[in-house]
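@channel anyone free to eyeball this complex?
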Amino acid sequence: MPTVGSGELEKSPQEENQQCSTYLFPSTQASVAASSGELSGATKVPAVPASTVASIPASIMKGHTRSASHGGVGTSVSSSNVVGRPSALKQNRGHQRAFSQGQIEDGAGATSFQRGHSRVGSKTDFILPPGHRDSENNVGAPPSATKVHGHSRQASRSESIYTLRQSGTPSLWHQFQTYVLRRKGKTEVEEPRYRTVVPNHLVPPRTPQKAHPNGKRPDNRIRTTKYTLLSFLPKNLLEQFHRVANLYFIFIVLLNWFPAINAFGKEIAMIPVLFVLGVTAIKDLFEDRRRHASDKRINNSTCRVYSGEAERYQRVLWKDVRVGDVVHLSNNELVPADVLLLRSSDPHGLCYLDTCNLDGETSLKQRCVARGFVEKQEVFHPSRFRSVVEVDTPTTKIYRFHGALVHPAGRRVPVGTENLLLRECVLKNTDFVEGIVVYAGHETKAMLNNGGPRYKRSSLERQMNLDVIWCVLILIVLCIIGAVGCKLWLSSYDATAIFIPEYHDPDYEGMLSFWTFVIILQVMIPLSLYVTLEMAKLIQVYHIHNDVDLYDPLTNKRIECRALNIPEELGQVQYIFSDKTGTLTENKMIFRRCSINGIDYNHPPPENAESLRLKPGAPMPLLVNPRMQEELGQLGSELRGHVHAQKIQEFLLLLAVCNTVVVARHPHHDMMNASGVIESVSCALDNQSNQTMPPIVTSSALSEPVLPSQSISIAGQGKPDKYSRLTESRSVTPSPPPPLAATTRGQLVPPSLSPIASSTESTPTGDSPPPPPRTIRPKLLHVPSLLLVTGSKKSPQNPQNMSHKSVTPSPGELRPIFEAESPDELALVDASYSYNCKLLKRSPRSATVSLPGEGLVEMEILRVLPFDSSRKCMSVIIVHPITKEKTVYCKGADSTILPQLKPTDDFLMQQLIFRTQQHLNAYARQGLRVLVMAKRTLSDAEYEEWERAHSEAELSVENRDRKIRDSYAKLETNLTLLGATGIEDRLQEGVPETIAALISAGIVVWVLTGDKPETAINVAYSCKLFSPQMELLKLSARSKDAAESTILFYLTEIQRDCSPPDHGATGGLAGPGLNQVGVFARATTLGESSHSSHQVMKKRALVVDGKTLTYILDRRSNLQKPFLELTRHCTSVLCCRATPLQKAYIVKVVKEVLKMRTLAIGDGANDVSMIQTADVGIGISGQEGMQAVMASDFALSRFKYLERLLLVHGHWCYDRLARMVLYFFYKNATFVFLIFWYQLYCGFTGAVMIDQMYLMLYNLLFTSLPPIAIGVYDQDVPEEILLARPHLYRQGRLGLVYQPHSFWITMADSLYQSIVIFFISEAAYHDTDVGIWEFGTTITTSCMFVMLMQVAIETRSWTVLHVLSILASISAFYVFSLVYNTVCLQCFGLPSNYWVIQQTIGSVIYWAVVILSTVLALLPRFVWRALETCLFPRDVTRAVLEKRRAARLDILRNEFSSIIPRSKEDHLV
Amino acid sequence: MSSSAEPIDSSMKPKRPSDSAFKQQRLPAWQPILTAGTVLPTFFVIGIAFIPVGIGLLYFSDEVKEKVIEYTDCHKFANGKEGPEKCADIIENNPNEECECRINFTLEHDFEGKVFMYYGLTNFYQNHRRYVKSRDDKQLLGELKPNEPSHDCNPFAFTEETNDTTKKPIAPCGAIANSLFSDTLVLHSFHRGDTVPMLKKGIAWPSDKEIKFRNPPGDNLTEVFKDFAKPLRWKRPVYELDPSDPDNNGFENEDLIVWMRTAALPNFRKLYRIVNHTADGYANGLPKGDYCLNVTYTYQVNSFRGTKCMILSTTSLLGGKNPFLGIAYIVVGTICLLLGIVFLFIHIKCGKSTTEMINVNPRTPYQ
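replying in thread with the prediction:
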């Protein structure tokens, strides 16, 4: 295996950094110096600490300020980090919540005082771009106790973290609407600041509601529907009139009521509007019914409420829960209302909440019972709870709650957020809790924060709206011409003209006729287009939803189309922003390789992995490496292999111990069943139930969720309780670690500094060394099976070794439940378990491990040195039970551990290190996350000395964090190498293919991840985002200036590369400077042209890290444009360590600055803001909860479906709708022009020759179906071709079907056609006795035939539906007109049209005119279409033709080969 | 669309969409592509079909014989000779005065077949928006209600109130009826020395005559219309429109019916009479020779710069004489043929090159 870059591994990151900057950017040195100055400056200002959270006195930090969830490794408060946030600090903008996902706050010194977990900064905390002010954050203010409790986040969901905040007051209309539409309860002004909640069991039963102290409070019934039966009509109408188009038409209807203006029958004129309103109302009604059904389901869920009468808990529907009720909740139960916690099964009064449904955070939040109740846990009984609760009036602020418990004696106990369980959260890791409902129903914070869906408008629709404005202008012009014409015409007559019934002043008449023209030409504004468009989209979405190829049989999920109005946007995506973890990868870590004592052990994935995909969170089954197994088996024997086996065992022991894994054996169980009856011991009192609990539960406040496999077995053992199924839970999210030793914080992700990264990193020379060749990843990347495959399987790598001793646990054996912060740790522990090195029990101070040779061993854990991102490693210090030997087990990134190895002269040892390094490089190239394991044996003296020094460091006031870190680092030296591991984060099935297809479709794919660069780059390679031929540009600047100079440097390089030699000189001279920006900015407008030039150019890929992004996204830095320009030269971009908000900002910048249509796809809560910002948001309904899905417009179950969704459905939808929209413009314009031409013959009086019924029904009935057929069912290209040739996506991406000029071409066409239709009729009927209605009927018919034939020309694939729609339209016209002209002698006050159609269609002239008009009107378009295909066919046409030719050729060849003998055919070929 | 928050137990049933051709958008489809080759036949077919049709139409149009006599500016004929004053001026000065014109003309050819007599008006905007509306179809259906002619009829719904008369509803109300063409046209044949016999009935659409225009119930029209005033401009009430034929009075008067069918264009003709071919000498139409048109000139067109004319015309498949359609068909047919030839050329020339172009397409590698 190649060993490129192994030398660099030994450099510390700082060294590397330094070297790079000196080597490449002499100018940046100053900035480095400057930033270190800033650093000291920052430290001098204690009032503005790097993190307010960290500086809060630790004693009051009892809330949970956990951050760090899976996967992320923080950059932490290393010097570089402080430097990295100067803008936030200097500008004092109030963003001290600057820790990105997964960062570990360094508060180690304080930890011993902390009650819980000091992992600070929730996952969703992130670097807020400057200028984004968090109003809730008082920077300098000393944190009050209530504020520090609980979460550091204060903003409510609706205005928060996940959304880019929109400042500015709502529009007046909005305010008005809010005022009108909102429920009265919200507008009430006067309410006391505090309300009192009296426990309901204190109130005598059957108290009338008015007398009830809690009677005023709403019940827990929720209603998310917009309408009630009564309010539907007025409210819906009001809402519909919100739309400008509807208002316009209502205005026209009203206009028609003025006798002087009226052109149409008053009633008839309302038909279209009523139709539109009706259709929309019905659609709204259906949507509302869906909401109603879900409300009903929620309202009818049950929970257990204490009944004062029955003196026990009873099953009650959610909707009947009232404020003041005492409820009982079991583990994994949804909280029905906002509940003040009074009692928990936990002896410390703690319980854990999963707030995923509320804020999307997957971490658990700790809650504790109200003060004063912790001690009364055992004796608490609802009936004895006689206190009254005073609480705030409800607010939307999720994490703000104040209140007090007022005891009967009058003593007040304050309660706060940490005592409140919020509705829609899930109780976790606690057997049961009890509490009193303080807010119910719509007053719960969950409901108050329940914002409605946003309305996204597709770019097609935006373009359409623009053209509608053009239509308005055309209409106004026509009306003005009409009005002027009317005036001129009229002024040439006087009152004696016999055909002018009432003679007005010509000016007045002209003015009136302007409005008349507005009425009669109203069709110019295609009202029906809006309705048809919505209907077409609805049907399109229906078909997408029903696409069997987008159905995932494994998860039993279809594609979920949550947004109904942007299917065509899918066909126009230009940029895709994808999350990595969980979206591209499965987020399942699989132990793939390890290197022990210089030997590489491979663990190939089971071959049947494909068929046995698991539910998320299940343990990764491991195919035990037989050789390793066998070598391990030599343990204890006196053979030569003993030493080696010992090393293996030690390695495994390290895997098992050196982590923060929590072991659970039992699921949580509540004695009370669903109907509130205590089930276990006959007369077990509530307060005794704790004792009856299995000891493991009471012994710790730990979280012990249960793995599915086990929960099934337990549930199967005979508890038909409805809560038993709730025991299934997320295994990877434990509750915070025990509050005992300070140490078990942090998570660990194996940092893998891959050689790829180090070799090309920060070498912006333009001719960086070619990336190292990448070994091909194993083909099978999919999730392994549930079954544990025993070691008897033959490994391809060491076939000589056959293990017959199966040491993997038999399926029947109960495997303990491991819970770890990161899936990596889980994979490691699982791996060691598979080798019979089983971690069985773990407490903060000890770990019980079953070792193959020695049986159960309980080891004391002296300390856990938690992971932090500057050290990039974690360690544990354990004491061996027998030898009492103190050992430091350390695991971490290769870049950290390898330099810390004990210097040795031993050749064997050097050899070992060298070999391990080689393995590491190989692992990294395979895209594995690598970790290095090492140990150090400590003498007692050494330990004590360190311990003493460390205690000092912990107690120090200044620079405590740094000192502690240094102290840790001191311990982690002189290590002995044990081995290394490679963990695979599997790519999802089909990801590389999908990405390749998307890229060849011309879509720019960016991957935005919170992961660190090395891992991300590996994944980028393996998912084909990067190819080995690409030049990798890295942007990881530590200051704004560095970022700027790097970007500009790259740009000049690229300029030099791009420009031909003669222009090269000027490009080179121009040097990096801000004036360059203008040039680039102009270049961006070139759009596709520059794009195509890339294909000849060297391909580049850009890697940006989060810190650099901070500078780039800062608007004041003016770096956005150069950066975006740089990205334009790169085929793909990878953003690492990006925070959720940064992700959103990137999307926003690309969307707004580059004016690109963006699609964001992600699966986690951290992608929510990105998904919401993008034009199209796609959620992967994967493992990380529903937040992404809830925020998304489309929810897929796998990434690979994106290809089909975009390339096929998107393409179709865009093409169809674009053509449909144009057709509508054409259709209506033609009609309007026809009427307008008639004005030339009727003195601009506004007379309409077409019967009003036709006029109104023309759009609704006679020409409505064919466009829908096109809009929904037409396929310009069959799907096979679309999938085979992704480049066809270009059509939608560049918006080729509906371009700005398309509208004008359409208008010209309709002008021509209207002239043909009208003047042929006019000429044919010239000087005859034709009546106005016969004339109109002829024109209507001609027009209709032209329209329908136009559809026929535009239809690309004829199905039954197309034919039917056209036939139906024609017959609708004739049937209607025949019936109407027969039945209607006198209808609606219209001029009677009796027998007109019968009379007309009997004449030859009618048919002659219709045929002639149709042919002549369509001739140009027909010719144009034919010429287009012949001379410059579109891509799609070309593709279809080619396919057809190929098929024909195949047939030909087959026939040929059947005729000609085989040998000849060979010759021919 | 499906609700995501479904409870776990119900998610067990497979949500696999059904694999029907409709739902999967895989209905059998025909995908025509408009290439030069495929459109060729269309052009030739249209061309070949249109030219003969055009020739046919032209022929029919030529078959029609038409004689137009404009008499707007005819001079008053009194005492056996033509006076100096124009009837139009006389009428303008005194609308109630009767003025007669005589215009001699010669038919050069025999008018064979049915011969129709039209009156033609130009610059008469019968399609004026308010004019078109100014009628009461209900009234014309025979539903006379004294107080409510339709509002559409205003200002011709009621007579003005004067000192000696009360406000009376007008029947038939409205501007259309009010402006009823009132000239009387009579044709004299010098050859036969007699008036040419004309039919007054059968000029309106049968559907109009039978259904759309009904007299109010009652035997005596005079009685029926006694509460109604005649339209302002009319000289005779509605029940005396045709003194010669009692069945041709009231709303069922065919001249009225024809007039009430408003014309589409400002220059229009309306059927006035049909030559009675059952009469002697006119069985085969109108023989050539000298004729005289006697006009009782009462209808004033000067105010709107209109003209009046009398048209004698035979009829054909297409109705009147109108060569436009024939010519148009021939032209369009020719264009199509030419286009067909152009496309044939393109097809032969470029059909191959398109193939070549496709083969060298740089984007083909994505297969």
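from a first look: Chain B touches chain A through 108 residues (CB under 8 Å).
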